[in-house]
TrEMBL record, chain A:
Gene3D superfamilies, per database record: MetI-like
Membrane topology designation: Multi-pass membrane protein
Species for this entry: Yoonia tamlensis
Keywords: Cell membrane, Membrane, Transmembrane, Transmembrane helix, Transport
Protein name according to UniProt: Spermidine/putrescine transport system permease protein
Record's keyword annotation contains Cell membrane: yes
Transmembrane segments: 17-38, 80-100, 112-136, 156-176, 207-226, 257-279
Family as reported in the entry's similarity comment: Belongs to the binding-protein-dependent transport system permease family. CysTW subfamily.
Domain of life (superkingdom): Bacteria
Entry keyword Transport: yes
Main location as per UniProt: membrane
From TrEMBL, chain B:
Segments crossing the lipid bilayer: 7-29, 69-90, 102-124, 152-171, 204-229, 249-273
GO terms under cellular component: plasma membrane
GO BP: any one term: transmembrane transport
Subcellular location(s) of the protein: Cell membrane
Protein name: Spermidine/putrescine transport system permease protein
Pfam families in the record: BPD_transp_1
Domain ABC transmembrane type-1: 65-272
UniProt record similarity statement: Belongs to the binding-protein-dependent transport system permease family. CysTW subfamily.
Alphabetically ordered keywords of this record: Cell membrane, Membrane, Transmembrane, Transmembrane helix, Transport
InterPro entries reported for this sequence: MetI-like, MetI-like_sf
Alphabetized Gene3D superfamilies for the sequence: MetI-like
Membrane topology qualifier: Multi-pass membrane protein
Amino acid sequence: MIPTIPQTKLLKWSYRAYVTLFFVYLALPLTVVSVFAFNNSVFPSLPWEGFTMAWFFGTEAPFIGVFNERSIMRAIGTSAFVAVWVAGLAVFVGTCNAFLFVRHDFRGKGFLYILMLLPLIIPGVILGISILVFASSVANTLEDNTEMWFDALRPGLVLVILGQFSFITTFATLVISARLQKFDTSLEEAALNLGATKWGAVRQITLPFLLPAIMGAGVVAVLMSFENFNTTLMLVGSDSPLTITMFDKLKHGSTPVLNAVSLLLMIVSAGLGLLALLFQRGKD
Amino acid sequence: MTDKSKLGFYLLLMPLLLWLITLIILPHIGLFMVSISEKIGVRQYETGLGNYAVFFNEPLYWRTFARTAFMSIFTTVLTLVLGFPVAYYIAKLTRGRTKTTLFLMCLIPFWVSELVRTFGWMILLRETGVLSNFLQYTGVIGGPVEFLYNDGAIMVGLVYTSILFMIVPLVTTLDSLDDSLIEAGYDLGGSGYSIMREIVIPHAMPGIVSGCIVVFMLSLGNYLTPILLGGKDSLWFTGLIYTQFITRFNWELGSAFGFLLLALSSTIVFLGLKLSRQSLSDTMGR
């Protein structure tokens, strides 16, 4: 079935109806979450009690808005802190990996490449528990032998950052490698002929060329870190990131303040997603 | 290689090895070691397969395991069947700006946190929710009906969360299929069905395989959707792992569970790649 081949009207319209229905299915949950953020009721459900902005700016209980709900604001701060660290680390290691896999040939390269891809096929929960178990046993051994405390290896933000970094790096590597493969190495050779040092050529010619991919990978890493749940759940300590805080509130029944946070999250993540796409487009 | 470029090579190799060894390889070896150790006293352990024996002897555990596997396979099939026509529509029946817009509309829900999407389904399906009210309003049902907390709700949520990972690779592979091949099929007297079976599907196979692998893994490893949308009896294997680790503090049994889940997911990925004669680098490395 392609446009140049004639089809019966019925088939054409039922196909269109199906695709429309599919997009309604896609939009439905996000729409209701957004709409109920403005409902003047303490439950995120029908009946509709009228329009309010209280779930964003409200100050009086039970109508405490997002911007005045301290636990949520703190969780957003925690998430942002984690995301910046994860993105920074993942982009740095991803860039090194890209140069290694695109520019160098060495024994065991194929094997290392497969290993690099593995985090994609390990379920997030398993990644979380394996790092939890390993970090705890290292901490136990160290504490038994040195009589010092190694709290960074106990559940907490350091482990959350390491856990998210462990699989987001693979995505960063793939995005940056794809761009590096398109690079014309004669540009770098020209710089070397003109007297640049090896590192100078990379810094002034190759890295600027890679910048859109590096920025794109960074934005994707922030997005993935902000939204990660499975790995984080297993490694979280007393400071919980936003998704964990929201999950706890959701389990115990919720007010529309969660809808308001969700709407803000949607706007920010759609914005970041579009930004990442723009960076990707800029590279052609 | 000169000494200098050798140095550069090792400097580049370091971060990769550090990452893979400390965060992927050693933790998984550690997980396996813990899973084969049995607690016999305070900080005293013995090597043995006792934790795995517990899994096979307790029906609740292996039934949940099998249930999780079957529901994930069902989700994968459902996602493929529902997603393929949409992907085909986007790739073959739209052009230019419409195509970009439709593709973007598929991507946006995937950028939004899974928690938010699941929350949306809770609002829609709960007893006082939108669907129940709508059906009462139109007179289809007499009183409020609870659509949440059953396996159907889990399926709806799982398909929703993963369908985008099916559609994206499908659109990419179908896009690369030249329309003239389909036209040639019609010219040679093929029917719509035979063209689908002999031209379109074989061409889309890489996309189908990578979509299925990703969707299956995501469903198997999902925690949020089954916990929030499922009922008291709708256990999910990741839920059992969480209970052993965080609630019961039985890390030995939890590690064994984790290893079993990892083994299942790797086996399915391996079989999928073998059956379709593809390599991990081709499927995932794009």
